[in-house]
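Form 12-C: Joint structure prediction
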Amino acid sequence: MTGKPKDGEPEYQAGAWLRGDGPESDIALCTRVRLARNVQGYHFSPRLDDTEARELRDFVIDRLQKPGLSEKLTIIDLDSIDELERSVLVERHLISRELAASKRPRAVAIDADESVAIMLNEEDHLRMQVFASGLELDGAWQRAERLDDCLIQRVPIAWSEEFGFETSCPTNIGTGLRLSVMLHLPGLVWSEDVERATNVAQKIHLAVRGLYGEGSRALGDFYQVSNQITLGRDEKEILGDVRLAVGRLVKWEREVREALLRGGARVKTLDRIHRALGTIERAQILTSEESLGCLSALRFGIEEDVLTGFRVADVNKALLMSQPGHLQRHSRQVLGPEERDQRRAQLLREVLKIEV
Amino acid sequence: MQYCSACQTAIASVVILDLNQGAVTGSQHLCPACAEQLGVAQPKTPTKFSAEILEDLLGGLKSSGQTARQRTEACPGCGMTPQDFRAKGRLGCPRCYDTFRADLLPLLQRIHEAQSHRGRLPGRIAEAPPPVDDRNLAALRKKLEDAVRGERYEDAARLRDELRRLERGEETRS
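Section 2 - Result
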């Protein structure tokens, strides 16, 4: 039941995060649908012992492998790969940090283009994720719904008429649905409007978090907007809430970007973009924080036609490759923080095809 | 009209009767402020939310002897104790939703501003209808909730008894 992600270049082309296409892809990197499900007859994670967890994992894998599923899934036993490989999966958003660090029997099922990932024995027995490039709420939801239908026919899922899908944490009960859109908001950050903008989303109970970095600091101007309410609103209403908030954020970001490239503001904005490019071209040491900031500015410059000769997909790839797990795997060795920062400076130029 | 026997200035509106084997052996007339101060009357309680009344009603569901136990004993499905649940905020099994129902409902209201599900359900997807009892219970609970909201307490009490009967039926079967 083990399988490893393929080695080599082609895998870096895959992944809905990286393609840089899809609706509103100048601002929206990726849409994610997550469904939390538990299997009848088994304890939830806080009460699940290892024997039970192993049995549950093997049972679900067996059912997932029965013919008829539209997704071709590769199953990875997370104990069969090392910590570095697990961190690569975390950076690719295929598994959570918690699942990677967990000591209990666990696995993930991933489809070939990394647009579906089913985590087994996370906080809930099953955490299904569907990814789509850009702002693609309906497409991602429909795919998740089909996958859920298939799953429900194969595995007895815990639910009740009153509470809907029963989850380990009351924050996921009901639909078990968490919709997230990853947004690149340099305009709102640079013009210091981001707090006001995210308040709009929070007013309708959406959470806005930084995509990278710990706590509330959003490194590289990347944000994740997701619903918090899962009970008492059906899937269509939740989709509507997220669509409304994200639509407004996207519109606002476009307006601010335009303003930043007009009149007196323009020269400052151009300066910032070109300085970032200069750093990427010449730096010998790049921390992940500085690298995220530079890549954000570069992405902004490309999307707004300030810079030419770069592909957004390459910037997205650089964002991924400059993270510690990918960086070390690419170098085929474990690197200390200082070595990583040096290696990162070189790797960005490789990925972005910059010759100095 | 009588003045408060404690402060002698305010009008008394609380009457305390001393009872001895059913016979009134004495009385005391107090104003509300003095009654509260003397600890013989509750401070004016805020109007209960319908959810709290509902909780009270549901709290009495599994016969009064079990009510107290329900709040202090572990979940029969997984052994999760109320302390565990409160500390971790996680449930241990599907039965916990019944066991900790009284704690859960206000919590769900705070988190989701709702207490019941709308949306997809496996029963409708897999064409496998849920057990009849479950559906009846949920429907009855819903009716009970409505009755409480509409302040139709007689209906609510009747529905509560009906729910209690159904639950007993379930218990004898399992």
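Section 3 - Comments
Confidence is low (pLDDT under 50) at residues 43-49, 60-70, 126-132, 170-174 of chain B. The beta strands of chain B are 14-20, 23-30.
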